[in-house]
Fold this sequence. Notes:
alpha/beta, Rossmann fold, Arc Repressor Mutant, subunit A, 2 domains, five-stranded parallel beta sheet, four-stranded antiparallel beta sheet, 12 strands, 41% helix
Amino acid sequence: MAKERILAVDDEENILELVEHHLSREGYDVTCVGTGEEALKAARAERPDLIVLDLLLPGVNGLEVCRRLKADAETAAIPVVILSAKGEEADIVAGLELGADDYLTKPFSPRVLTARVRAVLRRKVQAPADEETPLKLHGLLIHPGRHEVVADEGRIDLTHTEFRLLHFLASRPGWVFTRYQIIDAVRGEDYPVTDRSVDFHIATLRKKLGDYGSCIETVRGVGYRFKE
Length: 228
């Protein structure tokens, strides 16, 4: 089986060496470049399975690289994990809104990076459940058309955001999602874009689900998943 190919983009050589070392050790084929122009050229020529992208690049910056990749039909489907020292909420939201699949801030844990990369690649190759198909998992019936959740003791009343969060996680059992991926998938007018709001909604959702609350698992240092 061919190795999955990753393009790492950063103008700091020590960061590239660190990324290459840890991802190669996980079995990935890693190519490293140091500028935005090289990233665009390599992405179009090599069609990597995933790109780890810094934002503070000489010449074409990382956000522009991401925008061009997602605007090009030939590269739009390549997942992008941003790895940047720019950790303000506005920077993270900007990256995700341009189509990045995840966002990790420096300094970073190599173990967390490899976990995020695995999660994004796993999500790429598996199709989500039909958005209108009822889900029955671990005794819970989640019906998107009726916007209701039914357990052994009857219907569970959830807010719009709580229902979308539960349906998003349950439609992909076993997949691990970061808080920012959850935000991007379920946010609405009643959903403030912060890490803490995700944790708050998860806590209240678990409480409302009662014994089924344990189906939503915390993956330390990464995010949340619905029990497979």
